[in-house]
């Protein structure tokens, strides 16, 4: 057996061995004297072949780094126990390293899994890059800020750990406020966000960001609020103005004491005059999109919210509205505005109609006009065209209804090709409005500034 004196007396290049007499098959400790240290390995045989397993270095002094002779002998015993199950220590430690690396990789993957908040941010970013309309993007941002960020502990959870019960934590307070449509909308956005997360980690060609979500199921799919849906059904939007109500609103919305600013009143009149275009899309139009012979609307409604060009030919009525607006807001970025650099906010539409409904103008004879919203004007025009014999296909075309799918994207994808048929429809709409409003058809041609 070796002792510290023999080991320290070694000269550079010397080699000493120490075997355990009680376990001769356990191999030998091998001490090799290097220039400034003594390296220690275990020498052993596997299937007749000599192998060496490094253990460490011998501590030459009490203050130097390394292992004492006692510690080296303990290490020898531990390796002997391992060799009883795995005779080849190289294979054993290779497997140990592999398992360690595997666990480190798994830990890194787990650590990289994004939170619920990360998922919503990534979804908003993806929808923005996909061309989702600004209004829809702002809707998602608002619901995240107002309905989700209110639950900070939930937002910091990993997205893959979110369960239906957590989704209900977001939806229940909205339902308790009887905001049924809002709850349905928030649920729809959450469902879309988790559907995006399910695909996110496996999108071919996706830019590598280092963040994954590891989502295995969509927790929103398992949620429902049947009672709320029943209430939603009873509050389904079916309101449409009759001809008398439409004429009353059109003729008085821009009156001095109507409760509606004159530029905003022109927006309401344009919705009607243009055959029921979506009010938020009309409001966002810059001046460059209304000059010329048609309104150039960017329509991003429908499946996927992918923007497409929707051209609506001018009539003398729509052109007159724009010419009159040009005298007031011609130096603004948008026709329908009171601020130089941005259009009206969406919230102002309903507020303005509510104010009008509180005036004496909202009375026909002795009957108060029932409440309606700005969006009801679109439905009103749809039903008016139907009653007056405008074909459904022509009405849908002028209102950009159902104009999605493979045929539209790949074949009927030239918006200018439909201008002649749209012009005929708009001429019909103008004649209908003249009758409803008890006006004579306009013959004068008014031009917008180029």
From TrEMBL:
GO molecular function, a single term: DNA binding
GO biological process terms, semicolon-separated: DNA integration; DNA recombination; establishment of integrated proviral latency; symbiont entry into host cell; viral genome integration into host DNA
Keyword check for Iron: no
Domain Tyr recombinase: from-to ranges: 236-427
Keywords from the UniProt entry: DNA integration, DNA recombination, DNA-binding, Viral genome integration, Virus entry into host cell
InterPro entries: DNA_brk_join_enz (IPR011010), Integrase-like_cat_sf (IPR013762), Integrase_catalytic (IPR002104), Integrase_recombinase_N (IPR010998), Phage_Integrase (IPR050808)
N-terminal signal peptide: none
Record PANTHER family: PROPHAGE INTEGRASE, PROPHAGE INTEGRASE INTS-RELATED
UniProt similarity note: Belongs to the 'phage' integrase family.
Protein name, per record: Tyr recombinase domain-containing protein
Taxonomic path: unclassified sequences, metagenomes, ecological metagenomes
């Amino acid at each position: 057996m070796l002792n510290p004196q023999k080991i320290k007396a070694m000269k550079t290049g010397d080699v000493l061995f120490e075997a355990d007499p009680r376990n001769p098959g356990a191999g030998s400790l091998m001490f090799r004297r290097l220039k400034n240290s003594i390296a220690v390995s275990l020498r052993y045989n596997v299937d007749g072949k000599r192998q060496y397993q490094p253990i460490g270095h011998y501590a030459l002094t009490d203050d130097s780094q390394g292992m004492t002779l006692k510690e080296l002998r303990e290490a020898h015993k531990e390796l002997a126990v391992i060799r009883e199950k795995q005779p080849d220590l190289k294979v054993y430690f290779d497997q140990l390293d592999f398992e360690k690396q595997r666990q480190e990789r798994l830990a890194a993957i787990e650590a990289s899994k994004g939170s619920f908040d990360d998922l919503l941010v990534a979804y908003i970013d993806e929808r923005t890059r996909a061309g989702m309309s600004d209004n829809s993007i702002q809707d998602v941002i608002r619901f995240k800020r107002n309905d989700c960020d209110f639950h900070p502990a939930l937002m910091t959870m990993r997205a893959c750990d979110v369960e239906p019960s957590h989704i209900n934590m977001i939806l229940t307070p909205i339902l308790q406020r009887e905001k049924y449509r809002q709850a349905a909308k928030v649920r729809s956005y959450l469902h879309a966000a988790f559907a995006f997360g399910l695909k996110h980690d496996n999108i071919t060609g996706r830019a590598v960001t280092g963040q994954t979500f590891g989502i295995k199921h969509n927790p929103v799919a398992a949620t429902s609020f049947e009672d709320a849906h029943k209430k939603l059904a009873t509050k389904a939007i079916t309101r449409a103005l009759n001809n008398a109500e439409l004429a009353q609103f059109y003729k008085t919305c821009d009156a001095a004491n109507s409760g509606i600013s004159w530029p905003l009143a022109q927006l309401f009149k344009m919705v009607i005059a243009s055959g029921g275009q979506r009010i938020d899309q009309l409001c966002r139009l810059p001046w460059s999109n209304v000059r010329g012979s048609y309104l150039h609307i960017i329509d991003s409604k429908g499946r996927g919210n992918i923007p497409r060009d929707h051209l609506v030919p001018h009539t003398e009525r729509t052109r007159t509205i724009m010419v009159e607006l040009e005298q007031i807001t011609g130096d603004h970025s948008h026709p329908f505005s009171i601020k130089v650099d941005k259009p009206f906010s969406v919230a102002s539409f309903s507020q303005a109609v509510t104010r009008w409904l509180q005036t004496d103008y909202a009375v026909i004879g002795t009957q108060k006009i029932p409440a309606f919203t700005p969006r009801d004007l679109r439905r009103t025009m749809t039903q008016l065209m139907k009653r007056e014999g405008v074909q459904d296909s022509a009405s849908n075309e002028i209102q950009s209804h159902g104009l999605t799918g493979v045929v539209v994207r790949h074949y009927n994808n030239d918006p200018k090709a439909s201008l002649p048929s749209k012009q005929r429809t708009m001429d019909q709409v103008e004649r209908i409005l003249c009758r409803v409003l008890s006006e004579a058809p306009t013959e004068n041609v008014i031009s917008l500034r180029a």
